[in-house]
Amino acid sequence: MLIADDWKDYELIDAGGGEKLERWGKYILRRPDPQAIWPIVGEDSRWRNMDAHYHRSKSGGGKWEYIRSLPERWTIKYKDLSFYIEPTGFKHTGLFPEQAVNWNWIIDKIKAYGGKASVLNLFAYTGGATVAAAYAGADVCHVDAAKGMVTRAKENIALSGLQDRYVRFITDDVIKFVQREKRRNRQYNAIIMDPPSYGRGPRGEMWKLEDELFGLVELCMDILVDEPLFFIINSYTTGLSPSVIKNIMLLTLGKKFGGRVYADEIGLPATSTGIVLPCGSVGRWEAQ
Prior knowledge:
Shape: globular
Structural class: alpha/beta
Order of helices and strands: EEEEEEEEHEHEHEHEEEHEHEE
Number of helices: 6
CATH class of the largest domain: Alpha Beta
Number of strands: 17
Number of domains: 2
CATH topology of the largest domain: Rossmann fold
Strand content: 25-35%
CATH architecture of the largest domain: 3-Layer(aba) Sandwich
Helix content: 25-40%
Strand order of the largest sheet: 1-16-17-15-12-9-10-11
Radius of gyration: 19 Å
């Protein structure tokens, strides 16, 4: 398992009972987590003394209960990178801290390449990987269908002092964007993607990851340079194991470009108990 264990501004305090207890800067949040199916065994008093608690509704969705007044949003840092944190109506905060293991790897790969890489970030959300790639010196194209997420990514780039870097922000359906890039003969050294489990296209087309991922990777290979640098697939879909992601990458990227493919779970360590909370899977292809 790849473990994101070098945070200072973020801490997974504990997890259990279908929830996780986290410190985001100086604020303690309690949120649902479907992976934490064991009972709460830690004795940390912050389970009862949090700043905000997200309660899931039996009819779907949920809402935040604010025990103490919180700012609308605040800032946390990861090494030299900075991000806005803002509790949303869907339990999220605008950042997935476990992705730091990928940010580290992206930065190392781009710097080893000399920094002059062209990186495409698909389903890019609020831009954690975009910020990392830009920080390492790459030109980045950030694509997400949600305008609000693209706006937040722009803000995170500026917050990290990277507004002078070349980052192209695109609000669009990912598949249609990649198809247009292919017609334009535009190519990239590296691709990052974090596709959702389910979704709908601009005309109501149903997206289901298990049905679409293989074809999307094949499509993306057409916009890679002849000697690509890396390809990352990140997934929070419970039924999509690291082995499945690895097989997809072997049958597509590995078959065409050779190189190395590996996949694993990503996790966050709980400081109160020492357990590791699984937080999805990642597959990586890299040139050798």
